[in-house]
Amino acid sequence: MSAPLDRMAYLQKILTARVYDVAVETPLQRASKLSARIGNDVWLKREDEQPVFSFKLRGAYNKMALLSPEQRGRGVVCASAGNHAQGVALSAKRLGCKAMIVMPTTTPSLKVDAVRALGGEVVLSGESYSDAYAHARELEKIHGYTFVHPFDDPDVIAGQGTIGMEILRQHQGPIHAVFAAIGGGGLIAGVAAYIKAVRPEIKIIGVQTTDSDAMIRSVRAGERVPLADVGLFSDGTAVKLVGEETFRLARELVDDYVAVETDAACAAIKDVFEDTRSILEPAGALAVAGAKQYAAEKKLKGETLVAIACGANMNFDRLRFVAERAEVGEEREALFAVTIPERRGSLRRLCELIGARSLTEFNYRISDDQSAHLFVGLAVVGRNESAELAKGFAASGFPVVDLTGDELSKEHVRHMVGGRSPLASDERVYRFEFPERPGALMRFLANMPPNWNISLFHYRNQGGDDARVLVGLQIPDDERAAFGEFTAGLGYPCVDETENPVYRLFLR
């Protein structure tokens, strides 16, 4: 690489960048609900509204538009986890040149299909961006292609820097900080190069996931630090080694960094959806997650924060995971393992203690004749509330373990509570639909005769108007008729699943 460019040289390159042949000036939109919740004025730079649903189009096109006719004639090659690939493919289509795109095998199919639809020739190689990068460099040598780097190139960096130019044009009042996700560093390098040249008082904050934090580690070490492995949930930022030029610019221009957990990214996706009805990909939501975390850590109030919503290439099948983890990530769900004595009335007493608080999960399976272990999820206002709830359970005689931060519980155990029990040989199993409102379980327990024993209970809030609940009951033979009267009085739809072969295979 030639001698590093100074700030004025980058400013000139950004001001003259050729991005608007294909890219659009995206809106700077106020996130009113999020702003009200965190007590700061949050603005979203909507790069998810680009033609390829990502900011990457800017840098890719600027680089390719500046190539000579001979270089474009030979074709280009790039390595990308998806968004840069789409930018290169669309740019190649517009400029009339061949594009070979090397993508990790872990890339979501949505992005692979989008690249192919734009005319790019896709080669899948390796499990991360770094693996794909090595293969793309081999193809560059073999075929004489021009390599279009996704981040470590001054022309690419300058293209991304036009985002900073637009932000300052769109919001001319005070801005405390601008937040940008970091993979290889092209986005934050370009944005910082422009903003620090024009309005140096604005802080530039980089955001990475805790399992893909190559830039944070590199800045702390004073040199580029390669990661042995990277987390793939935020695939758009899964980079093992940041660029040389992006590292130089980040060390010089970026004020601070935030590392966020997966749950925080999921919560940020939900935050943006609630304000815009748009769904960001994990990497696209990192800046929002970082802004929330930074504001909380620094105890900011009344400040203007800009988060670059940098991409929306989300696979639909990931939404289930995002919805599941967002509740904990936004500190609205607390998880507990609660032990109750295995005797009549214990479950009802626990529910009375929970009171009108909304249940998010309630799983129980009879195990022995002394005690029962319940997996309980409760709606909370903030994470600190889980500790207070745990104290309340313990003070009322219910031993408890707070599982709110436990990865095993969130990923696996919540879906595995149950199984066979020798004490449940005489149970019958019923599937109910409870109205999704506080007190529905308490009404069920209050109306149930005290001599009926609950041997199994499974409930999970799915976000609908009704909750699907599976209940195992041990009812004396001479009171089976009374069960019909009980369900009729409740008014909850009920289906007998005792003969269901799945129940008999796994729970009986």
Description:
The chain is an alpha/beta fold. The protein folds into three domains: about 220 residues, Rossmann fold; about 90 residues, Rossmann fold (3-Layer(aba) Sandwich); about 180 residues, Biosynthetic Threonine Deaminase, Domain 3 (Biosynthetic Threonine Deaminase, domain 3). About 40% of the residues lie in helices and about 20% in strands. The chain has an eight-stranded antiparallel β-sheet. A six-stranded mixed β-sheet has the order 1-2-10-7-8-9, sandwiched between helices. It has a four-stranded parallel β-sheet with strand order 5-4-3-6, sandwiched between helices. Strand 4, helix 6 and strand 5 form a beta-alpha-beta unit. Helix 12 packs across helix 14. The longest helix has 17 residues. It is elongated and about 90 Å long. The termini are far apart. The mean pLDDT is about 90.
**SS-based class:** alpha/beta
What's the average pLDDT? 90
The name of the CATH topology of the largest domain is Rossmann fold
Number of strands: 18
Query: Domains counted in the coordinates: how many?
Result: 3
- What is the CATH architecture annotation of the largest domain? 3-Layer(aba) Sandwich
Determine and state the CATH class of the largest domain.
Alpha Beta
* Cα distance spanning the termini: 68 Å
| Percentage of β-strand residues | 15-25%
